[in-house]
Automatic annotation (TrEMBL):
GO molecular function, one term: calcium-activated potassium channel activity
UniProt keywords, alphabetically: Glycoprotein, Ion channel, Ion transport, Membrane, Transmembrane, Transmembrane helix, Transport
Lineage of source species: Eukaryota, Metazoa, Chordata, Craniata, Vertebrata
Protein name: Calcium-activated potassium channel subunit beta-4
Keyword Membrane assigned: yes
Membrane topology: Multi-pass membrane protein
Transmembrane segments: 164-188
A GO BP annotation: detection of calcium ion
UniProt main location, coarse: membrane
Listed InterPro entries: K_chnl_Ca-activ_BK_bsu (IPR003930)
Subcellular location: Membrane
Gene Ontology cellular component list: voltage-gated potassium channel complex
Protein's UniProt keywords contain Ubl conjugation: no
Length: 199
């Protein structure tokens, strides 16, 4: 009975490892690799920092059943990359780029529009005064968005490693349990046969 249980556990772990590897590969890993494909890093230098007259809506939460809409001004940080002489629009990461491709920064959504404006103005001062003309590392994807660059990547190497590592560990542990159970079973059969020969 114990052997049957361990065999079932082993096969369950093997199946879970394979299914999670397939699921992560299809749903998450493939899009992440597509985002990284054709991309790379470059040195960026700030060309201009400006606020557009346009304001965008964001959703704030003030409790379990309390949600509302506020507005924030659009901040654009234009940079020059070491890969191209054309100006590019800087974004925090891929997620922010998808949320609002027109702006470089989306503040944490506050209930008060004035607070959102202050957050954007603070970020504007940071890019103008603290960063200024100092070069910094940025990331780009020439195939997907040639006119945009990112300050950081959403999908880095460690996340991609974990995507492969844990399903693989689950699969290997399952295989080990099955192999060790089969070995233990065959050793028990041999021991029983030797015992019978002696008697």
């Amino acid at each position: 009975e114990a052997e049957d249980k361990s065999m079932r556990l082993g096969f369950l772990l093997i199946a879970a490892g394979l299914l999670s590897l397939l699921g992560l590969g299809c749903c998450w890993l493939r899009p992440a690799l597509q985002e990284r494909g054709g991309g790379g890093s470059a040195n960026c230098t700030v060309l201009a920092v400006r606020q557009l007259g346009e304001r965008f809506a964001c959703t704030f939460s003030c409790g379990a059943a309390c949600r509302g809409t506020a507005r924030y001004p659009c901040l654009q940080v234009l940079v020059r990359t070491s890969r191209s002489s054309l100006p590019a629009l800087l974004h925090e990461d891929e997620r922010q780029l998808r949320t609002n491709p027109k702006c470089s920064y989306i503040p944490p959504c506050a209930r008060d529009d004035q607070e959102n404006s202050e957050n954007v103005t603070y970020k504007q001062k940071y890019w103008k005064e603290k960063v200024g003309s100092q070069p910094f590392t940025c990331y780009f994807n020439q195939h997907l968005r040639p006119d945009d660059v990112m300050l950081k990547r959403t999908h880095d190497e460690t996340v991609l490693l974990h995507c492969f590592l844990w399903p693989l560990v689950t699969f290997v542990v399952g295989v080990l349990i099955v192999v060790l159970t089969i070995c233990a079973k065959s050793l028990a059969v041999r021991a029983e046969a030797i015992k019978k020969k002696k008697h």
